[in-house]
Amino acid sequence: MLAKCLSKDQMRMEILSSVQRLHAELYTIQAEHFFVPSFIKAIDENTEQGFRNIMKEASPGVFVFEMLQPRFCEMLMAEVENFEKWVHETKFRIMRPNTMNKYGAVLDDFGMETMLDKLMEDFIRPISKVFFPEVGGSTLDAHHGFVLEYGMDRDVDLGFHVDDSEVTLNVCLGKQFSGGELFFRGVRCDKHVNTETQSEEVFDYAHLPGRAVLHRGRHRHGARATISGNRINLLLWCRSSVFRELRKYQKDFSSYCTECQRERKERQRQSVAAIKLVR
Ligand SMILES: O=C(O)CCC(=O)C(=O)O
Ligand SMILES: [Fe+2]
C-alpha cells in the first residue's frame, strides 16, 4: 500500500477494515480474564480502604499494584506484534504514540478505543477519584492508549518529561529485560516544570510484568535504558476536560504542584512577618 496522507479517522477506518484480529476477546473488557482477583475485588468494593489494601504508595503520588493476568499480557503483546507485522508488510504509515517514541502502537487506532474507555471509566476513574481529586481524577473522560516497546532493536530509553494526561496508568506487559527503570522527580505545574528536584522527590522504580504504576501526568518522570531483552508496556493517559477548562483560569496550582506550595508558604511567611513589623 502506498503511503497516503490520511486523516486520523480515515487511517482508523483503513486499519479496521484491513487488519485481521488475532484475539477478538481483547476488544471488550472481561474483568475475570483481564485482571487479577485482588484488583477486581478492590474495584467491586470501591472504597478507599479497599484500594489501599492492594495499592502501595511507593513514593508520594506514585501507586503500585498487581493488575493484569499473565495470559492477558501475552495476548496483548501478540496482538500488537500482529498489527506491527501488518504495518511492516503493507508499509502503512501509522502514528507513533508520541513525539518521543519511534516504536510502539496506539491501541485506539486499531480498535481498542471502546475497551480502553471502559477501562478508564470503570476501573481507573474510581481509583483516581480517591487519590487524585485535585487534578480531575473523578471526571476523567478521555484517553490516549498505547503500547511502547524498548530494547536494543527498539526505543532504548525515554527522556525526562510530563505526560499530556491528568492521570497515567503504566502497566508492564513483559517480556524479559534488564534496565528500563522508571525515575520520578516530583509533581509540577507548567510554570514550574523545570525547577529543581528536592531530595525527597527522587524515586526510582523497576517495573515487573502484570504490575501497574498510577501517577499524576504532571509527575515528572522518564525511563532509563533497557539494557537487554525487550520491555513492553501499556500506557493509558487519562484526561479530564472539566479539569482542563478550569486550569485555564487558575494561577495557583498549590493543590498539586510542590513548587506552588513552596511559593504559597513563602508568601504567607512574608505577610505574617510584615504584620508583626506593623504591630
Ligand atoms: O517507559 C515507560 O515505562 C514510561 C512511559 C511514559 O512515561 C510515557 O509514555 O508517558
Ligand atoms: Fe510518561
Automatic annotation (TrEMBL):
Cofactor(s) of this protein: L-ascorbate
UniProt keywords, alphabetically: Dioxygenase, Iron, Metal-binding, Oxidoreductase, Vitamin C
Superkingdom of this protein's organism: Eukaryota
Domain Fe2OG dioxygenase: residue ranges: 141-240
Annotated InterPro entries: Oxoglu/Fe-dep_dioxygenase_dom (IPR005123), Pro_4_hyd_alph (IPR006620)
Signal peptide: none
Name the record gives this protein: Fe2OG dioxygenase domain-containing protein
Organism of origin: Penstemon davidsonii
